[in-house]
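Database export, one record per block. Field names are fixed; values are copied verbatim from the stored entry.
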Amino acid sequence: MLRNTVPYNGRRACMRCRWCVGFACEVNARTGTHNTVIPTALATGSCELRTDCMTKEILLDSAGRANGVAYFDASDRLQRQTADLVIVAGGAVESARLLLNTRHRLFPDGLGNRHGWVGRNLQSHSYAGATGLFGFDTFDDLGPGASIAISDYNHGNPGLAGGAMLANEFIRLPYQFMGQVPPWVPRWGTEHKEFVRDAYRRTIVIMGPVQEMPLADARVQLDAKVKDHWGIPVARLSGGRHPHTIEIGRYIATKAEEWLKEAGAVHTWKRAPAKSLSGGQHQAGTCRMGTDPKTSVVDRDCRIHDMDNVYVIDASVHVTNGGFNPVLTILAKAYRASERLLQGWKGTKARS
């Protein structure tokens, strides 16, 4: 959702398209690595981008030190790329999967997994909130939504650990509106269609990303039987949400409903998280950061405790996601870890 408010670096300003979320930006105003840091890196002449590839494992020498990666190229041919330094940045599920698939006599349970923490504490965000139906049109045909937000309930909620920011939800296509239909309206048929036609332009959704409590049994593992197109064991997700996460979600949903009622909604209905595993957007937590190798996977600089030349730099190192979208934290951490890496790296090894 990072968007240009004015033309910048050859990209246009946001045109306030109402279908911003989930679709490509028509004017290239929305930020992504594809139009910011990757082109910048390529322009230096020191970066080569290999697309349509799938990494199989990190290669380790006889002493257990990383010396490259094995990957399948766009033609499904297995390739080996030697490297002095390996940075894993596949996200909470795929980063954990890659480390678990990297086996060695010194790391029989996967790289970085000496104490069994790789893949544990899988989190994302348990979205909670409410929908309000108004007696007048609230739809102004301007996107992308998520333009009014408060942080009143992100911290300091009595008896609760954590919370969430609250914002007006993104504008949804009519067929996506089914997810906002109240529980007393049928999910199909004439009554359902009549409600959608009548209510689509008269609803506002207030929602927030509830900070999830880490849970060791919410995890990514390797499936013992199922393999992907390249013969690599796939990720298997298991576990559920911490009961306190659900408690926080119900509190946040109540606050969202109060906001809508105060704004004049004639009907409201709440949405709170269920007990099932949170495996959706904003995945985090499977390679958690910490100072103690016995209870974490990477150190404060995102380097795997057991290795001096393998880093994990993505949201999987988050201990929690907090009550905000994690992208700014991911960016800040990536810049910080990269800076520390450059300060400490010399030739083919880290400075002592």
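Remark 1: The longest strand covers residues 219-227.
Remark 2: The chain has a mean pLDDT of 94.
End of record.
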